[in-house]
Amino acid sequence: MLSSFIRLRSSRFPILPGEDDELVNEGMYGKALAIYLTEKLPEKGYATAGYGCEDWGWWVGLAGFPFTFGVCIYGRRWEDGDLDLYVSDGAIATHRWSWRTCRFIESGAGPAAARLHSDLLSLFAADPEIHVLATDLELPFVDSSQSGE
């Protein structure tokens, strides 16, 4: 389950020196944002479990949930050099199998993802250097209002 993607742009999150060497897939920038979220999400009550580069982008793990949970970050660098970042939750299991009840039960991922989405928007809105360009994208990189297209 992925909630809506948030698209943002900020000079606060440049491509960091050496980041190209860490990337699995070319162009999946976002390390500066991963570091920022690792530092800022505890202000919203989250226990962060570090960050890392994945083949699809950057991951900020969140501890204390009964399912795998975190923030997914994808980057897109435009021809003019601008870097747009796309952020969403990484909760995938809205239901889990319970052998005790022999049925699927709600995992809590849906409400947790909705709260995270709201908390991310709140963090971004509080920082005047961060420009939120969209809050409800179904997929990263698919937005008709993007520059460069």
How would you portray this structure in words?
This protein is of the alpha+beta class and 149 residues long. The protein has one domain (5-137). It has helices spanning 19-22, 31-40, 109-125, and strands at residues 5-9, 47-53, 58-63, 70-77, 83-89, 95-98, 103-106, 131-137. The strands form 2 sheets. Strands 2-3-4-5-1-8 form a 6-stranded antiparallel β-sheet, with helices on one face. A two-stranded antiparallel ribbon has the order 6-7. A hairpin with a 4-residue loop joins strand 2 and strand 3. The protein starts with a strand and ends in a 12-residue tail after the last strand.
Strands, helices and their partners?
Blueprint: E1 5-9, H1 19-22, H2 31-40, E2 47-53, E3 58-63, E4 70-77, E5 83-89, E6 95-98, E7 103-106, H3 109-125, E8 131-137
Antiparallel strand pairs: 1-5, 1-8, 2-3, 3-4, 4-5, 6-7
Short précis:
The protein has three helices and eight strands; from the N terminus they run βααββββββαβ. The protein is of the alpha+beta class.
